[in-house]
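Take a look at my tokenised protein here and describe the backbone shape.
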Amino acid sequence: MRLSSKIILITGGYTGIGRAIARRCVAEGAKVMVNGLEEDRGKSLVEELGAENASAFTIDITNPQAPQKLVAETLRTYGKLDAVVNNAAFIGSSNINTTDIPLLERMFAVNTIAPLSIIQAALPHLSKVHGCVLNIGSINAWGGEPNLLGYSISKGALMTMTRNLGDSLFREYGVRVNQINPGWVLTEKEILNKEQQGMKSDWYKDIPSIFAPAGRIFTPEEIATACLYWLSDECGPVSAQVMDLEQFPVIGRNLPKSWEGSH
């Protein structure tokens, strides 16, 4: 049991990657406080994992009181806090012409500012146990796509924050801060998003190799498995690191021969 006796707070944990992380953490011996926006999904997840292993707290993490409330509820329920997983994210398409200030402010509120606020609220308690923070970023943090401008900027800021706090908090408080940057993941929301964009319902069964050399994209469960190392004591003193979870080099690629000379 790699996470035995750990108490872990997971934002955006009612669906997708967050839900997979919650399931895997419980399977490895942890107890989890899971946050999300849809009350019914939270209740269903607690029923699945067992009330002795999981609790749900439904609140928008951009609510100014959310960080303190999430930490307080975790402490009230379990008595301590060993780790925070900042997984909640706002994903939306925008480019240079459509990225207006309100959209960008919303992106930063969810993807950058709220994670920082939650870390601030959790720090006094994480420091008592030399706990850790795992931020869930995106490979788009390295530059992103033209139609993911606002999202990419916010995830780039999150990555800089991880490296900064991973150094300063570990030195002063013994709290590790790391990040994983998943590539394309097959979540239920991603399936719905692509259908709304006009793609066929089973679009994920026929993805060009340029995007998925394996012939498929990642499952949430695969991302959750990667999180175990960073949340466990096996991680040792590793801090301020960012790990890309992708099928190809984010910087520098061997493109298929069919693409040679076409770009």
